[in-house]
Amino acid sequence: MSDIYSCLRWRGFRVVAANLLENVVLPPREEDQEEYYQLLKDYYFRRILADLVQVKEVGPKEREALAERWSEEALTKYWPVYERLGLLIKEGGKSLFFKRHLDNFGGTFEWFLGRVLEKEFLAQVLWSVRLEGVSGGGDFDVLALFGEKLFYLEGKSSPPNNVPYAEIEKFLQREEELSCHCAIMISDTTLKIERNILDNLIYAIRKRLGMDKEKAHALIKDLNGNIYFISPKIFILNTKRDIVANLDKVLSFFFSLSVPRFQP
Length: 264
Description:
CATH architecture of the largest domain: 3-Layer(aba) Sandwich
Largest sheet: 8 strands, mixed
CATH topology of the largest domain: Trna Endonuclease, Chain: A, domain 1
Strand order of the largest sheet: 1-5-6-7-8-11-10-9
Order of helices and strands: HEHHEHHEEHEEEHEHHEEEH
Radius of gyration: 20 Å
Shape: globular
Number of helices: 10
């Protein structure tokens, strides 16, 4: 069985950097990291933390805004946990986020996705990857090897309406140049993704392949309202209900496609 480095090298790429922790939110104490990983599976824990990365200093006004966005119940539940894990520090009547240099949650979401694929699905994984040999920039959020199958995952922590069309075009360009078996775009939201991400992805495919609208839309299979398969190898999904369960659905569906079946 090949490893992920060999798989990339055979495609003409060399890993320049990967799995760097500088831009990842992790508890200061190593013994807390397994609990932290499990907590990140909860949507509200993850999304409140993403906001804390940007807010940095939380006084009464900022806390009220967070409660309005995520609910007082969620803040009451998780605030003591953030403090216990060392992610928030009380100082002068405010709560300060402990990693002041960070300005976004992207690196942490990439790390988390990588850990999910490793721990829950036993994949070989690289996250926050930079490859040499890729034209137009070789930065990839997550690369994973399942047996002999190479997967590329792109994580989006901003709302679907804030994902620019140019990023969707770049996603298609990267999956094509990487020659991966499967490409997945996962939006960390409970909002619907078909109005912006799916529509723009289909438009980009039409533009790239010179395909008419009806033929392009025939490529789409709605798996459950939160997960869409675009034949032959692209999935887009949100994290509504359960991020691990949604990825499980994607992987099960993908691998079922490659199984030979009798035709009637």
